[in-house]
């Protein structure tokens, strides 16, 4: 199982969500930590400081994360509604 780390951005995003959605996000992150092989291709055309960023879908929300297979760490970068998440990355 991979260790889960969060960024301050992810913590802020999670606090703003409804409790039921936040619980689903946390549950999915824990599942991903147990099954890191399901995280495949990083997002394309990302700014240099966000290279290697992946996304995972939870309903209408997207979890943005990095995976470090060598250190077995899952770093949660942020979470937002699907219509707003990609605008924030530009």
Helical content class? 25-40%
- CATH superfamily membership: RelE-like
Number of strands: 4
SS class: alpha+beta
| Cα Rg | 12 Å
User: What share of residues are in beta strands?
Assistant: 25-35%
CATH topology: YaeB-like fold
Q: Please, what is the average pLDDT?
A: 91
Estimate nothing, just give the exact number of structural domains.
1
Poorly predicted ranges (pLDDT <50, ≥5 residues)? none
Q: SSE order in H/E notation?
A: EHHEEEH
- Work out the helix count: 3
Oligomer description? single chain
Q: Would you state the CATH class?
A: Alpha Beta
Please give the alpha-carbon distance between the first and last residues.
Answer: 32 Å
Strand count, sense and barrel status of the largest sheet are:
4 strands, mixed
The dominant shape is globular
In the CATH classification, which architecture applies? Answer: 2-Layer Sandwich
